[in-house]
Amino acid sequence: MGSEKVVYVNREDPDYRTLRGWADKGMEIVNAPRPLAGQVSWEGPFRHGIFYVASEPGMAALVRGSTLGWDAMDAWPVRLVDNAYIEERVREHLAEAEMTMEDAIEGWGSLAEVARADGWPWYEDVLDRDTESRR
User: Fold this and answer.
1) Going residue by residue through the chain (135 aa), what tens digit of pLDDT does each one get?
2) Are residues 70 and 102 in the same domain?
3) Which of 41, 31, 42 lies closest to 75 in space, CA to CA?
4) Label partner for 38 (CA 20 to 30 A): which of 58, 61, 94, 120?
5) What's the whole-model pTM score?
6) Residues 16 and 70 in one domain
């Protein structure tokens, strides 16, 4: 995943229902280690912090650069992804390292574990685990 300042959240993870709802309405979402200003704020699972804010894009632009805005408060943008997106990124990363997915799975045990080891928020519910372990 590199050193980029982005919080990736798996859209399937039920812990992020609130976040998904605001993202689906077209709002920009950020996550930070301290409380932030914005149209809607809440506390959620720790990623870069526990503080989340959602704002419409126009409002987000105003809040982002202000003196106590998102940039000053070390807020990172939240990007919703799914397992298919994560798998593509993991394959790209493995290719850069001249490694195959099969080799990685042999070492880590499953695609889910390879993705998590690479820092991605892979999500699987209880029913997916049996299928995943056979990949």
Assistant:
1) 656 899 999 999 998 988 999 999 999 999 999 999 889 999 999 999 999 999 999 888 888 877 778 998 999 999 999 999 999 999 999 999 999 999 999 998 999 999 999 999 999 875 555 555 544
2) no
3) 31
4) 120
5) 0.82
6) yes
